[in-house]
Amino acid sequence: MIKHHPDVNLLVDYVSGNISPAKAGCISTHNSYCGICRKTTFQLETLGAELLKDLESPPVHNSTFDSVLARLENSPQGQSESLNCKQESFPLVLKKLMSKEFEDLEWRKVTSALSVSRLHTGDLKHECALYQIAAGGKIPEHDHKGVEMTVVISGGFSDRQGVYHKGDFIFREKDQIHAPTALESEDCICLAVSDAPLRFTDWRYRWMNPFLRFSAG
Amino acid sequence: MAVPDSKKTEDQKDWDACLASIAVSNSEAFADFFNHFAPLIKSFAFSGSSMSAIHADELVQEVMIKVWQKAAAFDPKKASATTWLYAVARNCRTDLYRKLRKFDTPLTAEDLMIEEESQEAFDLLQIKRNAETIREKLQALPNEQRQVIAKIYMEGKSHSEVSAELDLPLGTVKSRVRLAINKLGVQLAPTGDSHD
């Protein structure tokens, strides 16, 4: 049972298209697991449609319609691509974000318990990455200069504020320090998007901060 | 406006049927759909006022091409024609904005908003009732709330952009949005972590 959801302001930004690509991917990943938020999203889209209907109707030149027909004639019949979904375990949007099979991702080992794989979204202001934490493993205490969104993909983790399972959406404000620990039962995989690189605050791990900067990789 | 209020009484089902005809390549249906919705899409492009006339025209074309190509994927059991169109228009506008700002991403707005097939498809009746409730309550919304909602949805502004434009604290913009969404009867996930 999913217990942690994006708040309504985030969902409104998502539905109205006012959110960066990486963050949109994070929310749709959550929604792929969460029927409640999918329903909210649908209602918020209905609101968008109602607002659209209320807009003025300025005339559109006939030439626009002709251009559309001409472009359609010249384009191959739009076949909806058939994504083969053999990997039942991942939501479609996550497969798009990974752009390759999970097994083919490149992982960077940060500690014995933590590996990170950066995902390319073209979004230079946000870092989007998958985090893999070994069962029972702990991520060194860290904070962020910006906000961080996390969705649990498999397994689960806990921190001072709570316990999170598959599908849960966690939003951390700037400067909130936390030290997530994976649940003992299985490895934990999370999708996370942050405004700025995380920084380890635990002195034993601070030396690793330069390694967490993805720009080189 | 010169056009009488006939649009307000339009039956949504007509547009559902119209999309179904477009799906089997009926070009008359496509022309009807275009004539009715292209002006609204043009308005949608303009309302952010950051798009020149050329780009508004480009958006209309992009959206209508998608309508033709994707009509077969429209499922009236999942959404009404206008809700479906809103999502198409929003995604096209996002992609166009990104293209104009040379924001280079391998993913389209649509890619990033794919939500897994819901098992619990909404029933038609519920969809209609839903839209009706939202339409009615939208008219009754206090101006200050409606204004904020319209800026976010139609003008494509983020909460913080709206806060800067209206010279209001971000918290005020956020709470106006929350109040409006509550009044519209949108169901939200329970907040708080207290229960199982």
Short description:
The complex is a heterodimer of chains A (217) and B (196). With 217 residues, chain A is an alpha+beta fold.
Relevant terms:
heterodimer, A: 217 residues, alpha+beta, Jelly Rolls, six-stranded antiparallel sheet, three-stranded antiparallel sheet, 6 helices, 11 strands, 29% helix, B: 196 residues, mainly alpha, Rna Polymerase Sigma Factor, Chain: A, Arc Repressor Mutant, subunit A, 8 helices, 61% helix, 0% strand, globular
Query: Would you identify the CATH H-level superfamily of chain A?
Result: Jelly Rolls
- Approximately how much beta-strand content do the residues of chain A carry? 15-25%
What is the approximate shape of chain B? globular
**Terminal residue distance of chain B:** 53 Å
SS-derived structural category of chain A: alpha+beta
Query: What are the segments of chain A in which pLDDT stays under 50 over at least 5 consecutive residues?
Result: none
How many H/I helices of chain A? 6
What integer value in Å does the Rg of chain B equal? Answer: 18 Å
* Helix share, percent of chain B: 55-70%
Write a structural description:
The complex is a heterodimer of chains A (217) and B (196). By secondary structure, chain A is of the alpha+beta class. Chain A has a single domain (1-55, 92-212), classed as Jelly Rolls (Sandwich). Helices cover 29% and strands 22% of the residues of chain A. Chain A has helices at 8-15, 21-33, 35-53, 62-74, 92-98, 209-212; strands at 108-109, 114-118, 127-133, 142-144, 148-154, 156-159, 162-165, 169-172, 181-182, 188-194, 198-200. In chain A, a hairpin with a 4-residue loop joins strand 1 (108-109) and strand 2. Chain A is elongated. The relative contact order of chain A is 0.17. Chain B has 196 residues and is mainly α. Chain B has 8 helices and no strands. Chain B has helices spanning 12-23, 27-46, 53-70, 81-100, 124-139, 143-153, 159-166, 170-183. Chain B starts with 11 loop residues before the first helix and ends in a 13-residue tail after the last helix. At the A-B interface, helix 1, helix 2, helix 3, helix 4 and helix 5 of A face helix 2, helix 3, helix 4, helix 5 and helix 6 of B.
